Amino acid sequence: MSIISNYNIDNNTLVRVKEKSKSFAVAISKAMREQTLIACYDDVGHMDAKKTLHNLEQLYWWPNMQKDCKNYVRSCHKCQVVNHRTANAYGLLQQLPIPTTPWEIVSADHVICLPQIRSGNTNMLVLIDHATRYVVATPSAPLGVHSVTDALYHNIILRYGLPSMYISDRGTAFPARHTQHFLQKYGVTQSMTPPYSQQANSIVERANGIIVSTLKKLTDKNPDKWDELLPNALLAINTTKQNSTKKSPFYLLFGYEPRLPRELHIGSFIDDTPREDQLNLLILARAEAANNVYEAHLENKHRFDLHRKSHSFKAGDLVLYDWPKQGDHKLSPIFKGPFVIARPVGAVCYEIKSRTLQNKFIKVVHVQHRRSYFKRDADDMQNNTSYGENEKMIHLQKIRIQQKIIKKFL
Ligand SMILES: [Zn+2]
């Protein structure tokens, strides 16, 4: 029996007649909508919103079904923690400060898993000056706390003076309390870059790559004597023109190019530029080096940012974090959480914390490992329905009940 032009009661069910196709769809009451979504989404393998809507439209209809379907799929917890990221990761490339004074900013990192040398060490600690890219490296104990501060003190502070900023990442030893006390004592600001971040401490990581590759070639017959050839590798690196500064680290630090042993055999000359001119040239070279680094950064930034998006998280926002945990396997969720944003730390990091007081958890993470979390709100679906549509549904349901009553009496 026809009730309203495009609604029917069919087999005791309210049916909506689609005008264009003249096909039918069961009108789903508010109370049944979540169950319908579970049947067409959760129970059929979590397809995307478009496919789920297609499934729904085959048989069902309710006001704002498309919007409800989209919100329901977007807020699925399982999909949010399991699915790979399809959009660009957050976090545009940040500019590290470009110093012109040597040893103003120092980066540190460990190279681990090297062949064991006679002293028993398998690690190397690398320190690099940002202004000149001059590299200092020493064998070190396995991520030992004291080896970091010892190297900073003996190899940097006692030779070149106090840096104003120290950048480190990875290794558990680096953020240790002992290191913090040491840096505080000497008035050095510590910039901590979080683990698993490709942007973090890139200058020293690039230097590590060059040292390891140079050592591989120098020590091919005796890899367990890499410590003996490390000074040769460092001299070669420090006296070679760098792509970023377009000068050798040695020149930018000391103001002259050293005579190298090889020159005894091949021949060389002594630079007789007047002393005053040498100093002016050095000042100019350092300024040019800083400018070259800045231009290289702009180029990198342009390339990098093509695959990134900017971010604007605020305290209280819910986020997921792609956190590889011990014991994870192929079928483990990629993202863990949701966590709550506590506060920003620098330009691209945030402190995140757990949502419950019982499970205390605070961690500083880089924005590139973050994904916004969409919480499913049970009221959303009902709020989405406009007043007019609700009224219409109530009216239709009332008629449906009346129909039932009439049928009983017939
Ligand atoms: Zn899902």
TrEMBL record:
<dbReference type="GO" id="GO:0003676">
    <property type="term" value="F:nucleic acid binding"/>
</dbReference>
<dbReference type="InterPro" id="IPR012337">
    <property type="entry name" value="RNaseH-like_sf"/>
</dbReference>
<protein>
    <recommendedName>
        <fullName>RNA-directed DNA polymerase</fullName>
        <ecNumber>2.7.7.49</ecNumber>
    </recommendedName>
</protein>
<feature type="domain" description="Integrase catalytic">
    <location>
        <begin position="98"/>
        <end position="257"/>
    </location>
</feature>
<dbReference type="InterPro" id="IPR001584">
    <property type="entry name" value="Integrase_cat-core"/>
</dbReference>
<dbReference type="InterPro" id="IPR036397">
    <property type="entry name" value="RNaseH_sf"/>
</dbReference>
<dbReference type="InterPro" id="IPR050951">
    <property type="entry name" value="Retrovirus_Pol_polyprotein"/>
</dbReference>
<dbReference type="GO" id="GO:0003964">
    <property type="term" value="F:RNA-directed DNA polymerase activity"/>
</dbReference>
<dbReference type="GO" id="GO:0015074">
    <property type="term" value="P:DNA integration"/>
</dbReference>
<dbReference type="Pfam" id="PF17921">
    <property type="entry name" value="Integrase_H2C2"/>
</dbReference>
<dbReference type="Pfam" id="PF00665">
    <property type="entry name" value="rve"/>
</dbReference>
<dbReference type="InterPro" id="IPR041588">
    <property type="entry name" value="Integrase_H2C2"/>
</dbReference>
